[in-house]
Amino acid sequence: MILSLAATVCALSLAAEPYRYHFDNPAGTWEECLPQGNGRLGVMADGGTNREKVVLNEISMWSGSRQDTDNPDAIMSIGEIRRLLFEGKNDEAQALMYKTFTPKGVGSNGGKAYERPYGCYQLFGNLRFDYDMEGDVSGYRRELDLATAISTTTYSQGGTDFRRESFVSYSDDVAVIRYTASHRGALGFSIRMDRKSNIEQRPSWDPVCRAEKDVLLYHGRLCAGTEAPDEPEAQGTRYMGKVKVILPKGGDLSAEGDCLKVANASEVIVLVGMATDYLGGESFAEMLDRQVADAARRSFRSLRRRHIREYSELFGRVEVDFGHNHEREALPMDRRLAAFDRDHEDPSLPALYYQFGRYLLISGTRPGTLPPNLQGLWAYTIKTPWNGDYHLNINLEMNYWPMESGNLGGLHRALTDWVKSQVESGRHTARVFYNARGWVTHTLGNLWQYTCPGEGPSWGATNTCAAWLCQQLYRHWQYAPDRDYLEEIYPIMKEAALFFVDMLVEDPGSGYLVTAPTTSPENSFYLPNGNKANVVAGSTMDNQIIRELFTNVVEAAGVLGDSDRLCDTLSMMKARLKPTTIGDDGRIMEWMEPYPETARDHRHVSHLYGLYPGDEISMTRTPALAEAARRSLIVRGDVSTGWSMAWKINFWARLHDGEHAYKLLTDLLHPAASTGTDYNRGGGSYPNLFCAHPPFQIDGNLGGAAGIAEMLVQSHEGFIELLPALPAAMKDGSFRGLAVRGGAVVSADWKDGRLTKVRLKATHDGEFFIKGVTDAPVRLAKGRTKRWKIR
């Protein structure tokens, strides 16, 4: 067993050499730190040699609490809002909505709700090390190995070689840091913990930290956001951290106040556990004690081996290879990004970026926890941008785009559970705001079942977000057709569809059924009177999403044998939605009317939902719409926020334009400097490969990874298509283990843009047709493999 595991690790190391990147200096900013996580706990260390800060995160570290958002004025005004919209008075309808169709209270408080009921995802704490070393530093290297999720920092100082090795254990659920020195007794440092951030906070929210023997204990409680935030009943999520220090080879360890001190040590192991009562319940402290104690009973070698075995089972499922430039691969990542920006002569960088996306998804979520938020798992502030919440008008869904094709379908569980937790609140919101059955949610989501419209109708009135979430759930079933899972999600989808049965109304001008009020997410247009507006009766994105939802519900009903008459109703109503329409300018219309947009280069491209992630617009089935989508993208432009450019990679891949998809990938890898908010430009990549909105948003990384996979394999048309959008820069290469719909994984090799080898393995019983490879569908039983050599 030991020999087998060693061989596996060795093979992984050799195969995954390109899946590493490094720096030759400590991090000067958070965006230069190396992200690590296990789906619940996150760590980002700056790698300092005299002082080091390790930023700690726990996925449920949320302030806030459940709140009453009911606004009785909403249902009283919806009729008047619709009348104004149907009369073309969108500006007046929008003004009325700002008075009546908003939540009680402040909602998300403009993205600054860290002391409001909506809440905010926050920093867990900072672990601070002060090192007792002197002398000049040489040979510094800080590296992250994506294949093992292990970070190493090495350097020489004062004639001694120092090494730090860290990981967030996927198996034992603690962070592990090991310090070693080449000279006996050369390690000495102190450890403290705090929550100092970029803002002042109330003293009542400061954590308590104390040192006892070999342990640093840290606990506190977040703000629930009620009217009297200093009162005990207003306190929210409880949290606790525990840092245990182990000296395997001896040395001195002492506790003084809130500080642990190590001296005269040759090896030090630091175990870091974190917990909240959100995930851990009333016994979260006992859970934390048990996790740290269990880890402390194992050797570092055992902890490392167990972590690699569990983590690599996920990461090692997929390999990609587009060639190598070993000179570029040897550069520190900041210089490597700058060099790539000049000439793009680094074929393994896109492969690394793809695997980095998979790495972030594996590290950022896992069953039994929560979905990755706007920042995934990693945040260094108490006041996280946009509350670090779940934006549901693309961003949360984009986080999961690489999951299925990237052979990580098991990570769906946290999203499925989170969506299920929203349904009860969504039913209430449907009744209160629309007098409708079913369930609905809007642009924003958090841990406290917030499903009502946002406080700004111009962006917060989008009401097809539950339907979009259902698309993501159903997509998992399409890749892994398990009947039990379909039975689990079918009621959620059915109730989301039922909402639109009641909510859709007839547009008296066109006769189409429309969502009213709604928006095309965050975009605005000019009315004939010159005024700007966002709110409309019906949008192209809404129609595409609802059509897809109705189709999926009917299809699922057929699989499950549900003969509910609702399916007949959905089919009839689907026929009354306005089809995706080409305007006089040759572009896809974004709204029901040919309104001129106020920003032709807007970051949201919502009217092309049907191209991606939907599959309504097809190169083979709807070539005219595909051409109109291409024209829409040309007008929209390429340069934008990071996540928008990532979305466009997927669009161009679906249009089989590999060169344009690759051009956008190079834009996404453009070195980003700004960490301030920019809604239009400035997107790219920070030195640690985090995507810049700016600021950092993880959806750009994950959407970009999905786009690379979409360039290599597509299966949304009912067949498998290999290399549908291959650019010249990737003319030679291979991939292993990408997943396709129907339940299979596919591998391929190619030379000069032409396939040479194909391998298909069924993960479920099914029939599979590979365009250009098979003459007819191939039936494979689960676990069976078929290979082709192509000459």
Task: Give the structure's gist in a few sentences.
The chain is an alpha+beta fold and 791 residues long. It is 33% helix and 22% strand.
Give an account of the 3D structure.
The structure is a single chain. It contains 21 helices and 33 strands. With 791 residues, the chain is an alpha+beta fold. The strands form nine sheets. It has a nine-stranded antiparallel sheet with strand order 1-6-7-8-9-16-13-12-11. Helix 9 (348-364) packs across helix 21 and helix 14 crosses helix 16. The radius of gyration is 27 Å and the shape is globular. The protein starts with a helix and ends with a strand. The relative contact order is 0.10.
Identify the notable features of this structure and list them briefly.
21 helices; 791 residues; alpha+beta; seven-stranded antiparallel sheet
